[in-house]
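Dear support,

Our group has been running a series of protein-ligand predictions, and this particular one with S-adenosylmethionine is the one our PI (initials K.S.) wants archived with full inputs and outputs. We had some confusion internally about which version of the output was final, so please treat the block below as the authoritative record. The input we submitted was:
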Amino acid sequence: MADVRASIDLALPPAAAFDALVEELANALTRLGIRFEPGPGGRVAEGAFEVGKVVAWEPGRGLAIEWRHASWSPGVVTEMHLTLEPSGGGSRATLEHRGWDAAVGDPVELAGWFAGQVLAPLISASSPGAFGDWFTDRRARRPSGPAARATYLHPLYHLPNFRAILAELALTRDDYLLDVGCGGGAFLAAALHSGCRAAGLDHSAEMVRVAREANHDAVSAGRLDVREGDAAALPFPDATFTCAAMTGVLGFLADPVRVLSEIRRVLVGGGRFVGLGADPELKGTPAAPEPISSRLRFYDSEQLEALARRAGFGEVRVVRRDLQAFAREAGVPEAHLPLFAAGEGGGARFLLARKA
Ligand SMILES: C[S@@+](CC[C@H](N)C(=O)[O-])C[C@H]1O[C@@H](n2cnc3c(N)ncnc32)[C@H](O)[C@@H]1O
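Confirmed final output from the archive:
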């Protein structure tokens, strides 16, 4: 019998490594269309087919899953084991699929399966292109993981632009605001102080969860609705919102005109939009470092205006703002305030648009 095995050494005690791996695995499998319910008696399902069930669960030490490897031969069962063992001050985590060779049969075919389905994805995941994409998604484009959850719950360095957008929007209790790409809901939390109603949308399931939890009272009171979805296909009827905002999202959009058209569609007549730009001057700075920077699109003022006009907005302008005073108010450390100074260019760009 041959086992398939992958392992990693982590500078974490076994209990912490176990918790981190189980959480990340469940989230990553969900993104791949596989549902993993961890815990004693847990299950793994691919669509309607139950692929596995948890038969051993020892937090900090490991788990075992009885694996039914094909829906067309449900009686054939193999075993997966995730094992944590102390190693060099940290721990070694090993995932083994025992008896998997029987599913493939011929050893040359097994070598082909292992090279193609395990080794090639591992090597490709470590390539600059794939690693840069993973890093960009993880940190900003579709944030996930504990570090991103903490960052977007309290995005200190985004608070200055939130304040600038709120100053432009001048929200009242009568407003119904949409925040596109709402992250952990920090902008929504600030906006809700006006007494307005609001909705947030993000394509990261983890960000949606953080935004809901962070604004739990407003959600319970029916003042806030946070949805998982794509900015290019907003799940809201025409003419729903009196205003919309988008911050830290524009540069990631493959089709910004389509997203702005969607925003225009869901605004009422006279509805206003304020969006933070994606300033070319930021390329390669701490605000847009590599490998994120080369995966962003940047727009100067004319290009920004053109995007909004192509999306059908009639009244469009770009303003530039010095964010230093907002940064000071928000509690950004004194040493970092110069990052928010207008400089020669005239400050951060904001796209202001109004639906006719
Ligand atoms: C850099 S974060 C900014 C989050 C928040 N607006 C802020 O300023 O703190 C970008 C956010 O936009 C979301 N996002 C990016 N592209 C999106 C899309 N096409 N549809 C929905 N959300 C998107 C990401 O998941 C992420 O939460």
